[in-house]
Design brief:
Layout (H helix, E strand, L loop, with lengths): L10 H15 L12 E5 L11 H19 L3 E3 L10 H10 L3 H10 L13 H20 L14 H16 L3 E11 L4 E3 L4 E3 L5 E13 L2 E9 L10 E4 L5 E6 L2 E6 H9 L4 E7 L8 E3 L6 E6 L11 E4 L5 H11 L2 H6 L4 H5 L7 E2 L7 H9 L8 H16 L1 E2 L11 H14 L3 E7 L4 E2 L5 E12 L3 H12 L2 E3 L3 H11 L2 E3 L1 E2 L6 E2 L2 E6 L8 H5 L15 H9 L19 H13 L4 E5 L3 H15 L8 E5 L2 E3 L2 E2 L10 H8 L1 H10 L7 E3 L1 H23 L12 H22 L3 H22 L5 H18 L4 H12 L18 H24 L5 E6 L2 H13 L3 H8 L3 H4 L3 H15 L3 H9 L2 H7 L1 H8 L2 E6 L20 E4 L1
Parallel strand pairs: 1-2, 1-25, 8-13, 20-26, 25-26, 27-29, 30-31
Antiparallel strand pairs: 3-4, 3-19, 5-18, 6-7, 6-17, 8-14, 9-10, 9-11, 12-13, 15-16, 19-21, 22-24, 23-24, 27-28, 30-32
Length: 969
Amino acid sequence: MTAPPRETYEPGELERKWRTRWDEQGRYEADPQDDEDSTFITVPYPYPSGGMHIGHVRTFTVPDVYARYRRLQGDNVLFPLGWHVTGTPIVGAVERLKEGEAEQLSVLQDTYNVPKDELEQLETPMGYARYFIENHYKKGFKQLGLSVDWRREFTTNDERYSKFITWQYETLRERGLLEKGLNPVNYCTNEQQPVTTHDLLEGEDAEFQEFTLVKFETEIDGRDVVAPMATLRPETVRGVTNAYVNPDAEYVLADVDGETWFASSEAVEKFELQAREVEVRETIDPAEIIGERVTNPVTGDEVLVLPADFVDADNATGVVMSVPAHSPDDYVALREAKADDERMREYGIDPDDVAAIDPIPILKIDGYGEIPARDAVQSAGIESSDDPQLEDVTADLYQDEFHSGELLDSYGEFAGERIEDVRERFRDHYRDAGLFDLLYEFTEEVVCRCGGDVEVAQEDTWFLRYSDEEWSQKAHDAVAQLEAIPESTAEQYDHTIDWLEEWPCIRNYGLGTRLPWDEDFVIEPLSDSTIYMSYYTIAHRLQDVPPEEMDRAFFDTLFYGADGDEAPDGVEVDIEEPNETALELREEWDYWYPVDFRCSGNDLIQNHLTFYLFHHAELFDPEDWPQGITVMGMGLLEGKKMSSSKGHVVLPGEAIEEYGADTVRFFLLNSSEPWQDFDWRADQVATTRDQLERFWSRAQDVIDTDVPDGARDELQHIDRWLLSKLQATIREATESMDRFETRSASQAAFYQFDEHLTWYRRRTDTDRPGAKWALREVLRTRLGLLAPFVPFMANELHEQLEGEPVEDAAWPEPDPAFESTRTEVEERLVADVVDDIADIADVTDTDPETIRLYVAADWKQTVFEEVVETGPDVGAVMGEVMQHESLREKGDAVNDLAQEMVSVVRERDDATLRAMGEIDEQSVYEAARSFLAREFDATVEVYAEDGDPHDPGGKAGQAEPFRPAVHIE
């Protein structure tokens, strides 16, 4: 029995009804079923350091759409969600709240609408997290209709989850993949502890750069001093002609590892962070070294120190060496220094000494003269250091020299070698000799979420050995068997695996799991979120297990079996007495695993997603490795990046209140494919709402219409055309969904099919019994196709139509009985002739009274058939055509037509061409005469070109196969 229809579309009321029903039924609670295939889908658990905004929504909705699709396909689907609270962002947010920081209070009250009288609830880390979990994320997810099994939720601060993390890290340590030692880390100078990518406000993509410090020597106040100068091109040391310091910056003398160094005060702080013994002795006026000479440790040459405002004291050491022969910016800087006699005299420098500085070439390279930098600058017409071209010219020359430059004879044992082959050996040679040192810097500015500057530090820390060759190979093997969506991302995983080295995995403080063997430290957020997907499979059943029972043997039994003999190859597990509870839980883990698809942000490929592959590859057998990963693009709001701190966000609850959850979902999934960026624009969202309302109204019309018995037997050509298009739409939507192309699938089922319906209604009387049956069948099928996208509307309409929610039905399958390429080709001919008539009427400014169509003569059909048979090669076609005596007489006309038909054939597939060969074209137009007459309010006549037609306009001879000539008057 069908449900009573609702005349108006009221999403708020409708969506509340279905949310209540789903909750009462426990609709999405998934348990193992022996008679159903399983599908396990996950998405990164949210980090509730603030509220959810519309930029987050698509990331969580895409996996829901796929989960709903797989359920309609008959799978038993698990789609769980938990909460990530590990680390310091929540702790920092609480501290800023308690301190009454204005910006934090504004974000909480003005952006996320936290009532003032509820702020006190947020003054503990877990109170803060729980507030946003319950009032923003979980509430928002339920409003959106996410089909989540909420029994399995947990937070990463739960005691039982920490036991699971403890097992993982004890296991990795035992396997030699966790070590302690000095390692470069991101270090927040405000929090005074290492931080990771997830903790950064700016510079998430920054990488470590290893600068070589060339230890120039000088004397200051009678003391031997090292003036370290940083470079990424240590081989250029023989081309140094001078040095620069900033006269307005602060410099110091400091004892660094037993030597006295001259550097900027900012640089000295970096030295200390990078595990050096540092003691600042005194501040030095840079004027004391400007105009002095420093000694090149490799050549022994003394070079002059010049003043330069462009030197950034916060970059590297604040002391810069100049190589004007091979650095365009150095060449221009030296040229400007030579022209500034007044400033040189201000610092006691004889301008003649500056004028005497000449570039020193160190290599030769094809395409450039003796001084490559001079050639590059002159070729680009660069006149000053302010020229925006200078940066690009410098980068281009650096690349050319790196790949093609050969060192000159002055380099002794390194002479004649290419830079790309010799750089590291050259650097190591002089580093071993004590003339070079090293300094780590970021490739860009990095700022912590707490607002503190982040620098590269070397810390004695526990780190994961992602550089381990065997582990890396396993990760590559995991990528090889992975379905990466889009496919191009597979290369990005492999690239990340290759450059990953050691990853510091602990913090000094914050929420999360304590390092088992050193509880002064906490395992950091990215490191505790690598295999938590396996925890979902049994999380709801662990509540009955005492935490103290969840020891190493418990998880070994759970994942490796009673005897541990199901551990990965090469891994030995000793289980003295298997835990019976763990054995029971193992059955559920084994049922759901592996993860079929993980949906995640494309910015996480370089860390979380690759870590996910590493840890699964090490801890589980290949059959339990991830099967697929779909990445997500980012979201914009009215063309600009969303920002919680600036209030430039839309909250999901507010959007759902205004437009409805189905509209929010449908807009996000239609605006772009998941891996592409989307832009939330209010006017376009409102348009989507209107389109869904029109769909609702049309559906109500169909539901209200009685379909007489036997109506299916009265289908006409146009009904069969619509039903054939419907089968093609099913195939297109299914193939798109299998590839996670949610935009393509929803576009096909909704917008593209609406175009077919518009034509259908234009073409026929929809009150016919056959039309009523066809429209009902179309609605039933489209509701199935749209159910993953607009589940509230689809379930309601399907229940009204069929007496059951669409979730209780199945994903539509194409019905071969309704698939007809010939029917579609015939209807395409009618549509094409309508367009041709309309174009002619428009161009001639004619309101037709009579329309005459002339169908091509039989000989023209013969030419078409020869092209189909022979293939789209005009020469070969003419050879065959000229075998026909009657065609030889037509000469050039045949040749011209053959070329036209070659174009027609090239654009169509084999099935379409076969159908075209079967069609009686004249009969198609004859059958459409009444429609054409109604369409143009004119008399329509159809003739064969070779049938002695009435041809007052002399048009008949212009007819071609499948494009009749048209005459209107």
